[in-house]
Amino acid sequence: MNCSIPNELLEALRSARFVVALTGAGVSAESGIPTFREPMDGWWARFRPEDLATPEAFARDPATVTRWYEWRRQLCAKAKPNPAHRALVQLERRCRRVSLITQNVDRLHQAAGSQNVVELHGTLWEWRCVRCGQQREERQPLRDFPPLCSCGGLRRPAVVWFGEALPEAALARAYHDAAACDVFFAIGTSAVVWPAAELAHVARQHGARLVEINVRPTPLTSLADWVLTGRAGEVLPALVAALQPPDREQPF
Ligand code: NAD
Fold it and tell me: Is 121 an active-site residue?
């Protein structure tokens, strides 16, 4: 793809004191992890995420919900960071200060090497007991559905389900960074899940320039200063390469 990056955007990034990137499921789509809003097969075709990723669904049928999460965990376990994840690592190196706020639960940003990641919706790789609250990393495949804690309580993925509050510290940090940045990227997010979607509005209200990278329009498109239409795995490497002279360029 021949992706041209506007010069004014490059200038804005070079002079920015603080850049924030909000990422969504579209950033991991090129790693083979389906988004929530595109038609897929398997469990995705049989259930709507809104019907499984809720506390009510877990209370009603914890075995089905945890099997669905295990299926997603196995997909994520096979996935590798793609050029979009790697370009965001480069962005962190090339801009003065970058905060990466993600709605993704797959930890591929961290696997790529991003340092400054705020997980707004938790992670698939930690599970928590609903009775005693113990939370720990869980990388091995689960064997029992639903999984049980040693205290006898049910264990659930440490992700944020529809209708649940976001982790307080992560949300406070996200609002703070959105209000403080000079350039705000919304990348691969449908911008319909709140409060994550609100962050772009907060940034604009505080004077930041808004950049959207997506394969199709979203509610943010008409508000953006720059809309880069295309796959994140193509647009972001082009953007990061354009930010620096060719002799310092590194392969993606
Ligand atoms: P979403 O599914 O609502 O939207 C995905 C967006 O990505 C869409 O706007 C789509 O047009 C865009 N997109 C698809 N492929 C793209 C590509 N290659 N490059 C750029 N854009 C692309 O996802 P969301 O906005 O992140 O919000 C929904 C919820 O989905 C979040 O709570 C998140 O936790 C959860 N989720 C996470 C993962 C993951 O961790 N990988 C996967 C699925 C869903």
Answer: yes
